[in-house]
Amino acid sequence: MTSRMHTEAAEGFEVVRRQVDLNAEALRELGAALRKRAPRTVVTCARGSSDHAATFAKYLIETHARVITSSAAPSMSSIYDASTNLEDVVFIAISQSGKSPDLLASARNARECGALVIALCNTPGAPLADVAHYTVPLHAGSEQSVAATKSFIASLSAIVHLVAEWSEDAALLDALSIAPSQLRRAFALDWGAALGPLRDATNLFVIGRGYGLGIAQEAALKFKETCGLHAEAFSAAEVQHGPMALVGAGFPILAFSQADDTRSSIEAVAREFAARGANVLLAGGQAANTRALPVVEAHPVIEPMLMIQSFYRLAATLAETRGFDPDVPPHLRKVTETV
């Protein structure tokens, strides 16, 4: 039986096509407003999968809009009631539900402290939209599986669209316009080569860098919540500062490598792990003694979105192979109302 996770992930291409069309005018206006405002910094706020999208946003905003971007700790507002000077700051809150109390507290606090608040949200009429100056609807539609899939892809595409308009990057806008067809192809790719090394695994590392770090974080979370598999995400640079001491014969590694200047470092780490006898699965790039996972080639900003789309199909299949129901992870629910 096909899981809801599998079915909803397969809708990613439709979600992005719909979102790009429906948000086009509003994001042109928001991009112009951001250029006029010329913020001194951007602060993101999110949890779970949405926070992984915020990691992606950091790299994209800093490389394209050239504005330093950091992540807010929601507890600073919801627990410690801390206030900081946020004049000339853009505060981006990312949430599927727009209901989590700590996220709402952070957004309210940011607005009171002078920030321009932008909400990326998938739930029409959510409380978060009432707090924000601008709301960017994700248009992912209803998502019943506890594991977020199409809403995460929608978050990535909305971030790409926002930053492309803000930075007036025509090439990135063109790349986004063809992403729906590429997402459809990406979901059809067979990552079955990963099932053998991961079927009986207990631990693994997920590696990415730059634009791909956020999807490494997302893949690690999905391994945990849907497959009962302990996974940790690392930058290809950070993994060399201690964690790689754990990697030896038979240790599984999943590495994501988009086609940009980060690729050489990811390939180098993959080769080193493979030389130790690790089971290295490499999506993008090439490295000796690794198992290649097929990818759809695209603009390097778009490729991570395509790779996580391929990964979702793998995760849904792997969960069932390991005896788990990917739609109902133990001890989890769809909306986590953290205080």
**Widest sheet: strand ordering:** 2-1-3-4-5
> Roughly how many Å is the radius of gyration?
19 Å
Largest sheet: 5 strands, parallel
Helix-strand pattern: HHEHEHEHEHEHHHHEHEEHEEH
Give the overall average pLDDT.
92
Strand content: 5-15%
> Spans with pLDDT under 50 lasting ≥5 residues?
none
Query: Kindly, what is the distance between the CA atoms of the first and last residues, rounded to a whole number of angstroms?
Result: 37 Å
Instruction: Enumerate how many helices there are, as a single number.
Output: 13
Number of strands: 10
What is the fold's blueprint, element by element?
Layout: H1 4-10, H2 12-37, E1 41-45, H3 49-65, E2 69-71, H4 75-78, E3 89-95, H5 101-112, E4 116-121, H6 127-131, E5 134-137, H7 150-166, H8 170-177, H9 179-188, H10 195-199, E6 203-208, H11 213-227, E7 230-235, E8 252-256, H12 263-275, E9 279-283, E10 291-293, H13 303-321
